[in-house]
Design goal:
There is one protein chain. The protein is mainly alpha-helical and about 110 residues long. It has a domain of about 70 residues. The chain has three helices and no strands. This is BLOC-1 related complex subunit 8. Keywords: Lysosome, Membrane.
Length: about 110
């Protein structure tokens, strides 16, 4: 008793609904997510490698700066010894000059 076109419309509607359910199936979403990860992963891996290389370079630079600071501090700390050596050298020069003057006086 149904109209001839109504049966076809029911089949079409059911087919459309089935396609819509399948298109929005969670496994399709997971597939799309997997595809996104597969495409993005190489770039992310490259970024990670770059960051690790920069971290290593930064650690090397930090070590160099810390070593240089330590060397400067050691130089500053040793200035006391340099002043002491300077005083001893001045004293030795003075004694030499005094000895030379005495030697010339005896001639």
């Amino acid at each position: 008793n149904e109209e001839p076109g109504m049966e076809g419309k029911k089949v079409t509607d059911k087919f459309t609904e089935s396609v819509y359910v399948l298109a929005n199936e969670p496994s399709v979403a997971l597939y799309r997510l997997q595809e996104h990860v597969r495409r993005s992963l190489p770039e992310l891996a490259q970024h990670k490698a770059d960051m690790q290389r920069w971290e290593e370079q930064s650690q090397g630079a930090i070590y160099t700066v810390e070593y240089a600071c330590s060397a400067v501090k050691n130089l500053v700390d040793s200035s006391v010894y340099f002043r002491s050596v300077e005083g001893l050298l001045k004293q030795a020069i003075s004694i030499r000059d005094h000895m030379n003057a005495s030697a010339q006086g005896h001639r």
